[in-house]
Each structure stands twice: as C-alpha cells, then as structure tokens.
Amino acid sequence: MTPTLVREHLSHAASAPPRVDLCARARDWSEIQERMLVPLYETVHERLEVGPGTRLLGLRCGSGLALLMALSRGASVTGVDSCPERLALARERLLPDGHAGTRARAGVRLVAGSPGDAAGARTPPYTVVTVFEPIGCRAGDAEGLGELLAAGLPRAGRGAAVVLAGWGPPERCATSSVLRVATRLADPLRGAGRWRPARRDDLEEVAHRAGLKPDGSGRVSCPFGYADTVSAVRGLLSTGLFDAAVAATDRKQVDKELTEALHPYRREDGTVWMPNVFRYLIARVP
C-alpha cells in the first residue's frame, strides 16, 4: 500500500485517465506522500551499510528521496523511472546544477525508461539494487516487477543485494481500509487495480522468480501522517491507486468517499494519522 503508497506505474502521459494532472500529482507525491517511507529507506540503508563504497541502482526511483538519502551517506546513485513527471522532480533534487548547464553533481545519474540504459560496457557493477515501491495491496501489482528485475539485474555484480518492499499484514496497516474505497468505486472496471491483502510470501515469490537468493527480511513502522484531511486526500490520490475510481465516477465523488474513509483517523487537532507496517526482503544475486 507506496512510499508513500505503491503507485500505478505509468510509462507515459497517455497511460493515465485524461482527468489526471500528472504534473500536479507528481508534485503531491514528492511534497506529501513520498516522505512516509523514510523509515523504510533509513532501515535498509543502515542494514546494508550503504556508504562511500556503495554503487546503488534505484529502480522505480520516483522523485528521488531514497536516492538523496543514499547519496548523503556517500553512495554513488543511479535512478531509473518511466514516469517523466516524477523523474523531473528527482532531477531538481539530485542534479540542481544540471538544469543551469553547469557541471552535474558527481556520483548521480538519472535514467528515463529502461534499466537497460543504466550502465554502459565500462560501468562498474552495482552493489545494491532497490525497488522501494511496495507491492501487496493491488491484485497483480507484482506482475511487472519480474520484467523490471530481469532488465536491471544484469547491471548488478555477483552477491549484490537486491531490496524488495511490500505492505505488511492488513490488520497492521490502517491504510488498508482506505484503499478499499478505490475498489468499491471502480467496481464497473472490475479487475483494474482491485485491492487485495498482502500475503506473507509475496516478496519471496518475486525473488524466486527472478532467480535471487533471499538473505534476510524485516518489518518497519511507517505511519502515514498528514497535516489535515485535504493533504491526506491529495497524498493518497498521488499514488495513482485511485485512478480507476476517478475514471468510473468522478474526482469529486472520490474526494468525498476518501474524506469519509479518513474520518476515523482524524485527530482532535485536525491531523490525520494512520499506523502502517511495511516489510522488506534482502536477496542476493547468485
């Protein structure tokens, strides 16, 4: 349930419903929703001792917050994403001088499109590969992950750590009840991103299909906290998980239903607080 909820991955603007403002949604993701998975990023970076000797490849890197955190630890980072709006925000964060035509920050590379473009013949292999976009809240949300890993893993060295992330048990994820709104409203489009509870072995199944060897896992508390209900609605919509609901009804109806679903998590001061647990798996390239 991307950091930050998992998003419906978009390859180009035409992939989204026409009523979605992709630039505004990417900005909401960057400014509101992405920070929710910071505890996950920190935990993984600490466990893998990400630092000056690390060459990190971030697949589905989004607007680059996890990459920025790895860079601050001394790692060299490469980010790959097929959403141009989010990648543009990652460039603002990680390559601020690049837009002015001056020398780009050393140790940073951002790639639009395929992981196959993330390294050349002389590029040293990556030591860490991350896919921090969590799976386990939408039917079929792991289907494209195998293809993504197949394209990215040849750029990793033998023994490299590959990190996959997923939602924890629904009884420990308050946001699960809110995500069910998307399923109910999108019922006329049954099958388009319907909610399903996370399974215990979701991540291991992905790793097995990719030919990886599991080498440890963990759980991290990642509460979703918002300044108010309006911010919560904007943040959740930025994930893309409600696009089918918007297409089946309209934006006002989705906003209304979301606001009602968030009511149990609204505190006396107007803030919204939803406790969640996310799981990560560390696997190794054989």
Architecture blueprint of SSEs:
Layout: H1 22-33, H2 38-47, E1 55-59, H3 65-72, E2 76-81, H4 84-94, E3 108-112, E4 126-135, H5 143-152, E5 156-167, H6 175-185, H7 202-209, E6 213-221, E7 224-226, H8 229-237, H9 243-248, H10 251-262, E8 272-274, E9 277-284
Parallel strand pairs: 1-2, 1-4, 2-3, 4-5
Antiparallel strand pairs: 5-9, 6-9, 7-8
Helix pairs in contact: 1-8, 2-3, 6-10, 8-10
Description:
The structure is a single chain. β2 (76-81), α4 and β3 (108-112) form a beta-alpha-beta unit. The chain is built from 10 helices and 9 strands. By secondary structure, the protein is of the alpha/beta class. α2 packs parallel to α3 (65-72), α6 (175-185) runs antiparallel to α10 (251-262) and α8 crosses α10 (251-262). Residues 1-18 and 99-104 have low confidence and may be disordered. The strands form 2 sheets. A 7-stranded mixed sheet has the order 3-2-1-4-5-9-6, with helices on both faces. It has a two-stranded antiparallel ribbon with strand order 7-8.
